[in-house]
Write a structure and sequence with these properties.
Elements (H helix, E strand, L loop, with lengths): L8 E2 L2 E7 L5 H9 L2 E6 L9 E4 L2 H11 L7 E4 L8 H10 L9 H11 L3 E6 L9 E3 L12 E6 L17 E3 L2 E3 L16 H8 L7 H6 L3 H17 L4
Parallel strand pairs: 2-3, 2-5, 3-4, 5-6
Antiparallel strand pairs: 1-2, 6-8, 7-8, 9-10
Helix pairs in contact: 1-7, 2-4
Organism: Streptomyces hydrogenans
Protein name: DNA methylase
InterPro entries: SAM-dependent_MTases_sf (IPR029063)
Length: 241
């Protein structure tokens, strides 16, 4: 029997590599979808709930490819940062010898993901970096208390875009000196009517970290659970005699 996608297993779960993992928003969704998750982030992430390596994501992925260890994995998720002088970006730049200036990490990440030979995802928010917007997800699709639109480039696989439902109202907070109420909270920044940590946790569906920076950087697990479930469904349907 052969698979449309190579499903490599350790026990009863295929392995997924979660690059630039932060505290595990994406990883948790993939775990719920059925993967064994391994996270990689250049910053220490004591709240990450699964197997974790503190390392430069690009160097770690390059080493997996060079040693053949990448063959343990079936799928790669990546959420490369691209902020100018972001702590994660600066650390990665130093490890790669690129200095402290702004570097787009999406392009080199894509090169290595292509070299891996595996199906993959590159995730970015609106207005950040240039990726193919093969898939866009929104909190309203999952009944969440955030909008948090995220775009996903899909490599070596594809999926039908789900319908984008009409938003039920505004994001709560201050805009130009006026306060607006609404069914969603702003999952970024601090002040200006921004939600409490507890409100962020409830709105995002994240309860294992109470670090605001980790919450504001995370994607809701519902997004990656949807992606992981779609991928595995396709993989299983591709089994042929």
């Amino acid at each position: 029997m052969t698979h449309l996608f190579p499903i490599r297993r350790d026990g009863d779960r295929p392995w997924l590599l979660d690059l630039y993992s932060c505290a595990g928003g994406a990883g948790t969704g993939y775990r719920r979808a059925g993967f064994h998750v391994v996270g990689v982030d250049i910053a220490p992430r004591p709240n990450y709930p699964f197997a974790f390596h503190q390392a430069d994501a690009l160097s770690f992925l390059a080493d997996l490819i060079a040693t053949g260890e990448i063959e343990r994995f079936s799928f790669v998720h990546s959420s490369p940062p691209c902020q100018d002088k972001c702590a994660l970006t600066v650390g990665t730049n130093r490890a790669m010898g690129w200095g402290g200036t702004h570097v787009d990490l999406v392009a080199p990440t894509r090169v290595l993901l292509e070299a891996s030979g595996l199906p993959y995802v590159i995730e970015q928010p609106n207005g950040r970096a240039e990726i193919r917007k093969d898939l866009t997800l929104c909190g309203e699709m999952f009944g969440l208390g955030v909008l948090r639109h995220r775009n996903f480039e899909l490599g070596r696989w594809s999926v039908t875009r789900p319908a984008h439902p009409k938003h039920r109202g505004r994001v709560r907070g201050w805009r130009h000196g006026e306060f607006f109420d609404g069914p969603y909270v702003a999952a970024y920044g601090n002040g200006g009517g921004k939600p409490t940590v507890a409100e962020l946790q409830a709105a995002m569906g994240i309860d294992w970290t109470d670090v605001r920076e980790e919450l504001t950087e995370a994607i809701p697990p519902a997004y990656s659970q949807w992606i992981g479930t779609a991928f595995l469904s396709q993989a299983r349907a591709g089994v042929a005699a």
